[in-house]
């Protein structure tokens, strides 16, 4: 049974070991002297912590370092975190695609893959595909199933955190009611289920545009509009899950019926299906990629559609920002590929609706991870779940 980050670095009993592990994971291999400088801990404390970690087999001897310029004495020996001790799977179940990434214990991506899923697929259709794709990606990465300690799986729509179950009001009707245990039985490892926008927020926080930011809001502009909240470096899912479901904020009381049963939710005016419906009279049946190509080419109608959607999202995001005042708003998902065409209306909405004190107004940026953000976030969730990534 592989040891976990938590087992070797329990707070209180081994805070120096924890500091060494975090430093090796985030900043790479180092000598004991470098670790002392990085962590601010005394050299004898570092030496003792590294000895314990070497004995436990969690860190490895990584060979001599380059002699540091201006420093006397022989070069030290570097140590590194052994990423091969544990691997995790991150998966995203979409409308038509299934994506999987494999990461090692240090968060390095070791492999990734994608499979197509049929229209209106169910969990019974998708789970065998997930198992097959995970095995193929692991094989191509040179690993085996035995090395995987945990998996994170992102699904569209709300997930009950307590029950670890996909909600009935999710976008993937064929997956509603599915539990983490159902997926665990297929993959053979413990599984954590989470909503895709929450997971995208975790991905940007751990690997992308929100790295090092204490409190951020990531908004996924996709087949639905969802947001993920990172509060003091932790994913905030609400008391029982469902936090950040901003796509169901009412924006037009006379608007179209939403799949949730309400009228005029943000999703009905700004999510991808609503945009494609609105585009139909002028452009016929086009895909989101075709719509975005028209935006890129400067087509006035396509640009207006995306700008208006972003503006509606911006008003809702501004309200969310008044509530919990993040430092940063990150825009991800298919529509974020329109770049400044979505960024600027959101910035304008924040200027219009947020408090005038510019010190408290969040910056708005595009996500850095593109379509890898959600599966990477799912892998981060698995690393946290299995103790290889601190939860805060
Ligand atoms: Zn709704």
UniProtKB/TrEMBL annotation:
SUPFAM superfamilies linked: Actin-like ATPase domain, Winged helix' DNA-binding domain
CDD domains reported in the protein's UniProt record: HTH_ARSR
InterPro entries on file: ArsR-like_HTH, ATPase_NBD, ROK, ROK_cs, WH-like_DNA-bd_sf, WH_DNA-bd_sf
Classification via Pfam families: HTH_24, ROK
PANTHER family: BIFUNCTIONAL UDP-N-ACETYLGLUCOSAMINE 2-EPIMERASE_N-ACETYLMANNOSAMINE KINASE, ROK (REPRESSOR, ORF, KINASE) FAMILY
Protein name: Uncharacterized protein
Gene3D superfamilies per record: 3.30.420.40, Winged helix-like DNA-binding domain superfamily/Winged helix DNA-binding domain (1.10.10.10)
